[in-house]
Amino acid sequence: MALKRVLAGATMALAVLAAGPVAAQKKISVLTWNIPVYEEKIKGWIADFKQIRPDITVEWIDKKGPELGPFYQTQSAAGTPPDIVNVQGALWLEYAANGALLDLGPYLAKEREVAGRFDPNFMKVWQFEGKQYLLPFYITKTLLFYNKEMFKEAGLSDPPKTFDEILSHAAKMTKGEKSGFLTANFDWLYWPLFAMNGVQLVTPDLKKAAFNTPAALDTLTKLAKATDSGAINKIAWTGRWVEPNGAFAAGTVGMLHIHAPAFFYVRGSGKWVNQDTLGVAAVPGGWSTPNSHALFISKASKEPDAAWEFLKLITSKKWAVTFGTTLNNLTGNIEADKEIMAHFKANDPLAARVLEVQMSNLDKITGNWPLARDSQVKEAFYTEIQNAVLGRKTPKEALDTAERNVNRVLSR
Amino acid sequence: MFQLIRTKRHRELALVALFLVPSLAIFTLYRIVPLFWNLGLSFTEWSPFKPAKFAGLYHYEEMLFYDDVFWTALWNTVVFMASAPIAIALALAVAMLVNGDIRGRNVYRAIVFLSYPLMTVAVGIIWRWLFDGKVGLINYVLRGLGLTEKGISFLDSFEWAMASVVVAAIWQVIGFFMIILLTGLQSIPRNLHEAAAIDGAGAWQRFRRVTLPLLRPSIFLCLVIGIINSFTSFDLIYVMTGGGPANATELLITYVYRAGFVKNQFDYAAALTVALFVFFLGLTWIANRASGGDAGAVETGE
After folding, report:
1. What ipTM did this prediction achieve?
2. DSSP per position, B214-245
3. Does residue A138 sit at the B interface (CB-CB below 8 Å)?
């Protein structure tokens, strides 16, 4: 009798186990880049999605910037990458080059109004070998912040209009603990300084280094001299994000070349920052490097159609406006950005000015080459730039080594 | 099952094997398999998104003949390792001080030891601020003493970055070394010092002829720990300098991380790990020879 009961129980358990996978709800996962503060609204995304696709469960994962890449790669190696991923900068290029991303082209061809939501200049940033792999999530690019008080003390009124003026303005403001200029250096954010001097990183076919020219040598020599004199703060070449912003917020640096979100950090920690004291402008020539965020779908996703539905939802006007007004960003969604700009003009004119500058010169975007080995090229080039500007090598030696190393990476 | 094994000796061996199986299985799974997996990976072209492709010695050729950063990182690792004797000398001095008959010596011992249990990440953050060019305490003192007019950005300078990181590493480990050496000092019989003193040996001679020889095992232990630390000081470097400026503080271990997780070259990182392993193996061999060739041997009394 007891044996019969045990057998019956075991049979039922097996039946339940066997039925499990069939009965289990389908699931998609969304990986975001360091926006835990947005949790409430993300729950809103998920609630809205449930209305459209009640059969799908959404799991949300958030990772800090440095953790996101390793997390995605290890999950991919395990065969379970998140379905939708929010990435910044050029991280996605290697994933796309290795066939890890879903080509959104067929979806966009079917639903043309989705592609029409976005500014083509920002859509272009997320294309690799002619395929659209990502949709813009929020957009940022570099610009020049300047401390009007320090400008006034140095007898300056307008922001610099040429590269040489950046350096001469910087020199005039340098005194004691004060330095004239700082640039962010990660993710090619310093590249506009080379672009405004006519330097090209690679040949148009992306196969060889093209930067070892007299113009680059001249640019690097001037940057090294200005760094040595203290006109350019060394943090420009060694700091990451917090250090340059912190130095500028402390009120001891005249100009800061960085991407737009830095404004909110600087304003949050710099007591001197207000509409009368903080200036914002495009750098000479209007050049800027984007450092935007976008969303892709993993090719290994088991629910690509549901992931696409989710992608459409979170880049819709409703959620783009919510995102922009909550986290102070523009989104690349044309209609949403109009509303976001109106919101800032009414509530925060200084932020509106920053965002306006960010939307200018969209034809002068640089530093975003579709290189499959972007991170390796970046390392090969920037290490030598550091060697030159910090005085370990002559600019000529540094450029020669950088050229050799970059060509080595590109030849692989 | 044990009844099936006939002799007592065989039964005992089977029991030993049975006890060993779980730990050997774990050791094999988490140590041996990854080791060979890593070795295999170093001969392939691999990314998490693609199947592996045989690449022969490509990564080793790259590492040995084209990659300047590898040689810089290797050199930095040697420099970092060479700081172990400095830490040991300082720890020995402190150990001898707190081994004397001074009031409150237990408090001093505790204070010196306190740096060791701190998390390395916390140590890195503390020292990063101490070395800060603008608000760092060290620069404040240097300016106060009139030794410098402008703050020195220690961690951003090619000249100072490595030395600064080494100082932080020594500071953290010195307490631990002190405890090991103190134990060694206390195990030296007092009568040996007294006999040497009666024979007319001065303090320096007693130190050289009695203390140092008898402390050799403790010093050797500290040296081994110091060398291991120099291979695993990832967190301190990562927090303080990130390996910069321009690889000036890059160690092999931080470079392995960067190759894998920043540059997405897991295959190349595997080759670097093999180089690190070979280097470490060589050092272990030297250390073993230096200790008489039987370090780690168990005396069975047979």
Report:
1. 0.75
2. HHHHHHHHHHHHHHHHHHHTHHHHHHHTTT-S
3. no
